[in-house]
Amino acid sequence: xxxxxxxxxxxxxxxxxxxxxxxxxxxxxxxxxxxxxxxxxxxxxxxxxxxxxxxxxxxxxxxxxxxxxxxxxxxxxxxxxxxxxxxxxxxxxxxxxxxxxxxxxxxxxxxxxxxxxxxxxxxxxxxxxxxxxxxxxxxxxxxxxxxxxxxxxxxxxxxxxxxxxxxxxxxxxx
Length: 174
Prior knowledge:
The protein has about 170 residues and is an alpha+beta fold. About 40% of the residues lie in helices and about 15% in strands. The protein has helices spanning about 40-50, 50-60, 70-75, 80-90, 100-115, 130-135, 155-160, 165-170; strands at about 5, 10-15, 20-25, 30-35, 65-70, 120, 125-130.
């Protein structure tokens, strides 16, 4: 489903499938949710509201059932054949990579998280993300804990090693 970017302090994008009466909302703090059986007029009113966050809270959140969708699968599942070829070339420039595996897709997703402001700096100076917002655990990134006092996965090493800024550029996410 194609979602439209909206101006909101809490919502990134909204999509609606009129035939299936399914509303999708992607939140700034992470998370993509599907709301089945939502009448089209609710979608129209949401899109026309001055405050999409307030409208969501009062008219959708506790009224309609929701299902959290995997953002990882949504991001990597939308990659075109050409984007996958470009990614394969990118990873092949770093290490021998004959096919994209779940590992490369997770690295690509980490680049997407970074591009969308979901990676932040802790007081310790290390970059991290909220696992519940990203939909994947930090341990999926196979990096050992770098700071034995405060813990945390050193995503900055991954950013440099895998050229996440280049992936963001290649995928045209910014």
